[in-house]
Write a sequence for this structure.
């Protein structure tokens, strides 16, 4: 695994040890960012199921100003911390350990609006629609936010979630990427 492009491009990232996470392949990561960017001029990203932190780190490498990465597993948090160190700009990242729902309940929408939402939950725990609805309810997403959902083929996400409409959908073997944009 590596950072594909941008300021930190080419640097190697670690995967979370064990079988509890499934890192996004470099090919899928590159495709995702080519579909949504490929580069950004500022903004804030939220990765609710950080895993290795690769998607959030890639977003900052490509121009996001800041990224918040959440995961509840100790090994994932350790790996994210190590991978953020590879970027050599830790001030651009905020790493939070815990349940994503509990953490977002305590975020202040007057201080933070996310421009990019990265959702790659464990395939067996598909609650993407519920997560998006909660973030909208808490007013944590910018009106024109982009939402990237990485699922398996069985997830069958709808064409519209709250004020966000399906923009692009692409299959990569067992992985499906659905991208939504705010109206």
């Amino acid at each position: 695994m590596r950072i594909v492009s941008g300021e930190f491009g080419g640097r190697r990232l670690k995967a979370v040890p064990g079988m509890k996470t499934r890192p996004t392949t470099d090919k899928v990561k590159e495709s995702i960012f080519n579909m949504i960017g490929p580069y950004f001029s500022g903004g804030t990203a939220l990765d609710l199921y950080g895993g290795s932190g690769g998607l959030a780190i890639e977003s900052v490498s490509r121009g996001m100003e800041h990224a918040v990465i959440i995961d509840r597993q100790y090994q994932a948090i350790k790996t994210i911390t190590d991978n953020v160190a590879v970027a050599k700009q830790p001030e651009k990242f905020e790493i939070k350990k815990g349940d994503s729902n509990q953490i977002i309940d305590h975020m202040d929408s007057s201080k933070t609006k996310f421009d990019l939402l990265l959702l790659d939950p464990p395939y067996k725990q598909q609650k993407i629609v519920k997560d998006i609805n909660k973030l909208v309810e808490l007013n944590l997403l910018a009106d024109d936010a982009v939402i990237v959902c990485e699922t398996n083929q069985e997830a069958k996400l709808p064409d519209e979630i709250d004020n966000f409409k399906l923009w692009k959908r692409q299959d990569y073997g067992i992985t499906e990427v659905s991208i939504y944009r705010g109206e």
